[in-house]
Design goal:
Chain lengths: ~450, ~250
């Protein structure tokens, strides 16, 4: 049952005991502390145990310079689930003590061994780290949830969804971390890195209000807009907005959420030339089949959209929109492009113009995919050709999410109806697997 | 159709000249002041965005190549990278631009223990199928090859003493590797030691060895403390290992 051991500067012996590791739910997870020089059948001088501690199959343990106790949790999957986390207990903690901090650092994945150096940097051995799941080592500066470096095939990404690339080539990725809300983040990668290695920055932590972030966009000033499919004041999702160069555990500068917003599992977001926000809601509208809500620039709070594309309330049978779990956005001419994930189609709507209120309007063009394999990613190139992500083949994994071999289909501008793509990217060399987000951007910073 | 040029022009793989971008935009009637402002935004779900983000600049001397950036939410069945990148204009069964190898060069394999020496080098224990301790320089980052790889049987916990000697627990006990050497200089194991599936390990400034003894099905949980190990020289290492079983006795 004792898994980890560490020595305090005062010679005390700290032990992490993984009760849940032996499969007997009656054996608690504990941290026991013994006096220096202890010998024989001695009682610990302190025992951290109980429901307030947050201990969950603890393994690694480390003591910092002031005597605070760091414990790596979730080395095994416990019956109660639980997220990978580092719990920190104040020096001298005893009994059913709540941690002074619970850390969900980016990149931890079944953390096992941990250590602290004299500068307070935290080192973690991750049993399943990296996209090859062979393991990684992550290093965190003091008070940082973002690794300063990663050893291994690891980019700090886990089930990423939305992606955008700004004009400098900087890459922004919405990271859902396998559905664990506490690990949600927006990762930022320097131009040309292709999202390899540790991110150059990340927005992560409880203050960020990120909750299953999916869609992501930046405006011309570098402000960041995130569509969160969960969270918000009513639990139906939110739009969180961060100033340029935000990083760490920062509060959003503005947040759109609440009953008046019409948000319902928002998954796609973009801006038009006026700064209006276009949001696709996977379960929006009276029929819950989806909607597109449009907000004025600089909107914040529980604000009503200026327009909503959906069927009218009480008129589900007369739905003209064809929306069915939509994702997508708008091009700079104002046309609105969405991919209907459940409907197997790409729908294109006229620019908003002066439209206001509920707009139950049919698309001006619909591209139909007979195999219904669209996964939700959509973007356009400068010629208005349409790029959509899909799963060429899909394997359902029992008890979990499915695994897909991915592809990209490209439809020419102006396509409508049942048409063949003008190009596809797929096959065993492309290395796509259930692709979710797609963006076009420069591969490096523009030279000047 | 203007946009099709980027697929049909072989020399245009991933590159669209400023003039081409301008002509396409102009032909679509979207090269307006407002559109330029809006076009400088970019999104996974926002078309045009990053493409137009290569906006002509008086001081710009080169246009970066444009590419498709894709997020992958599953790692199965291919073990795909979370983000894959393709030249704009790609078609067919092509490998992504990303240059990482499919197999990590780090030698990491489900690492459980971690330690650090006074130079900042990092040590990790790697599970039963690779049986190794891998060592990384303080500057190692990403997919780095280890500075050294030490063969160790099913290593679990790891600690270093002030001299840089490496202490590794395994099912068979504790093995001590001399600083800077790849051979075992001491081995603590056997019935008299009380060691049973030891995991975590720590060494204090005097060289005393503290072990979290995970125990067996009988529940022999304990913390064992051993006197400082006596290190064998290289020439005596093998002989020492054979004679050292059962030594030293634990304090507890």
């Amino acid at each position: 049952m004792p898994l980890g051991i560490a020595l305090g500067r005062d010679g005390k012996i700290y032990v992490a005991n993984c009760g849940s590791c032996i499969g007997d739910h009656n054996v608690p997870d504990t941290v026991t502390v013994y006096a220096p020089g202890s010998n024989g059948d001695v009682a610990p001088i302190a025992k951290i145990s109980g429901d307030k501690t947050g201990l969950n199959s603890p393994a690694g343990i480390a003591i910092d310079a002031v005597g605070d106790i760091y414990v790596a949790n979730d080395v095994i999957v416990s019956p109660s689930g639980g997220a990978d986390k580092i719990t920190v207990y104040a020096r001298g903690s005893n009994g059913n003590a709540a941690p002074k901090a619970t850390l969900f650092p980016l990149g931890i994945d079944y953390p096992s061994g941990i250590l602290l150096d004299s500068g307070g940097n935290l080192y973690v051995a991750n049993v399943d780290g990296g996209w090859d799941t062979n393991g990684s080592i992550t290093v965190y500066p003091p008070n940082s949830l973002v690794p300063s470096k990663i050893i291994g095939l690891d980019s700090g990404l886990d089930s990423p969804s939305g992606i955008t690339v700004d004009r400098s080539g900087t890459i922004y990725v919405a990271n859902q971390a396998s559905g664990s809300g506490d690990l949600d983040s927006v990762n930022v990668y320097a131009p040309g890195t292709y999202a390899k290695g540790a991110p150059s920055a990340a927005i992560i932590g409880a203050k960020t209000k990120l909750a299953q972030p999916y869609g992501i966009a930046t405006d011309s000033r570098g402000n960041l807009y995130v569509a969160n499919t969960e969270g918000g004041s009513d639990g139906h999702g939110s739009i969180t907005i961060y100033p340029v160069d935000s990083k760490g555990n920062v509060a959003p500068r503005a947040m759109i959420a609440g009953g008046r917003t019409g948000l319902s599992s928002p998954d796609g977001i973009t801006l038009d030339s006026k700064g209006y926000l276009y949001v696709t809601n996977a379960s929006g509208g009276p029929d819950s089949n989806g909607s597109i809500t449009i907000y004025r620039a600089a909107s914040s709070g529980n604000v009503a959209p200026i327009a909503t594309i959906s069927n009218n309330p009480g008129c589900a049978p007369c739905d003209k929109t064809g929306l069915n779990s939509p994702q997508g956005a708008v091009d700079s001419s104002g046309k609105i492009y969405v991919v209907n994930v459940m409907g197997g189609s790409v729908a294109i709507y006229r620019p908003l113009g002066n439209g206001r209120g509920i707009l139950n309007k049919a698309p001006i063009a619909t591209i139909t995919e007979a195999k219904n394999n669209f996964t939700g990613g959509i973007t356009l190139d400068s010629g208005a050709n349409i790029y959509v992500t899909e799963n060429i083949s899909y394997v359902s994994l029992v008890g979990g999410t499915g695994a897909g071999v991915g592809g990209i289909s490209i439809y020419s501008a102006g396509s409508s109806g049942v048409v063949k793509p003008i190009a596809t990217i797929s096959g065993d060399r492309v290395d796509l697997a259930n692709p979710q987000g797609i963006a076009i951007g420069p591969t490096r910073r523009p030279s000047r | 159709m203007a946009g099709s040029a980027i697929f049909s022009h072989p020399s245009a793989r991933g590159e669209v000249s400023l003039l081409t971008v301008f002509l396409i935009l102009a032909s679509l009637g979207i090269w307006t002041r407002d559109c330029c402002a809006g076009a400088s935004t970019a999104s996974a779900t926002q078309p045009i965005a990053a493409t137009v983000s290569a906006t002509p600049s008086a001081t710009s001397t080169a246009v970066p190549k444009l590419a498709l950036f894709v997020t992958n939410s599953d790692y199965l069945p291919l073990g795909s990278r979370p983000v894959t990148v393709y030249p704009l204009g790609s078609s067919g069964n092509i490998a992504p631009l990303s240059t990482e190898t499919g197999t990590s060069q780090t030698g990491l394999y489900h690492p459980s223990g971690i330690a650090r020496d006074s130079k900042g080098n990092l040590y990790a224990t790697n599970g039963s199928s690779v049986d190794s301790v891998t060592v990384y320089s303080a500057s190692a980052v990403g997919d780095s090859r280890p500075l050294a790889t030490i063969k160790a049987s099913d290593p679990q916990g790891i600690a270093l003493d002030s001299m840089g000697n490496i202490y590794v627990t395994s099912r068979g006990g504790i093995t001590v590797f001399a600083a800077g050497e790849g051979f075992a200089s001491a081995n603590i194991g056997g019935d008299a030691t009380g060691l049973s599936n030891p995991t975590g390990i720590a060494v204090d400034s005097s060289g005393k060895i503290y072990v979290a003894n995970y125990g067996d099905q009988d529940g022999a949980y304990s913390v064992l403390v051993f006197r400082p190990a006596v290190m064998a020289t290289s020439s005596r290492a093998q002989q020492f290992q054979e004679s050292a079983r059962g030594w030293p006795c634990p304090w507890a």
